[in-house]
């Protein structure tokens, strides 16, 4: 059954670009888009490890999915791919930034706990 918009009209296929689309969310989102819609996916990532199973030419959606292996920090092809898309999801993340946020979270927790102990001893 065709998907319809709020006016009850069929939704026309669009091109969806996913930067970092080879990651956890991107690979699941791409699988859902390919199996349940007629949209086109332009997947960009430094690694295709988690999305390789969707890129097989035997899939019925083989002509609707493109994978571009690149580092978006220093690849001029990005602009062309984004301009060719109707919608862009930015899903790329840096594991270093994640590690820093976890470190800050624990540091703050221990700091607050330490302050709490100090107050207990002072009163
Ligand atoms: N997974 C979750 O539960 C969750 C929850 C909240 C927010 N988020 C956010 O959603 C986004 C996606 O999450 P995810 O779990 O899919 O992360 P993920 O790490 O699995 O995927 C991110 C992808 O980005 C790619 N990437 C990183 N730098 C790149 C670069 N310079 N060029 C090209 N590709 C690059 C990585 O190779 C990776 O495949 C992240 O920003 C994350 O912080 C995720």
Furnish the topology, listing elements before pairings.
Layout: E1 15-19, H1 24-36, E2 40-45, E3 65-69, H2 77-83, E4 87-90, H3 95-122
Bound molecules: nicotinamide-adenine-dinucleotide.
Can you summarize the main beta sheet?
A: 4 strands, parallel
Question: Which molecules are bound besides the chains?
Answer: nicotinamide-adenine-dinucleotide
Helix/sheet category: alpha/beta
How many helices? The count is 3
Helix % is 25-40%
Spell the H/E element sequence. Answer: EHEEHEH
Examine the secondary-structure arrangement and name the CATH architecture of the largest domain: 3-Layer(aba) Sandwich
Number of strands: 4
CATH superfamily of the largest domain: NAD(P)-binding Rossmann-like Domain
Task: Report the principal-axis shape.
Answer: elongated
Name the poorly predicted regions. Answer: none
How many independent structural domains?
Answer: 2
Termini gap: 69 Å
Strand percent estimate: 15-25%
Biggest sheet, spatial arrangement of strands: 3-2-1-4
Q: What is the CATH C-level name of the largest domain?
A: Alpha Beta
- What name does the CATH topology of the largest domain carry? Rossmann fold
- The overall pLDDT, averaged over residues, is 88
Task: Compute the CA-based radius of gyration.
Answer: 21 Å
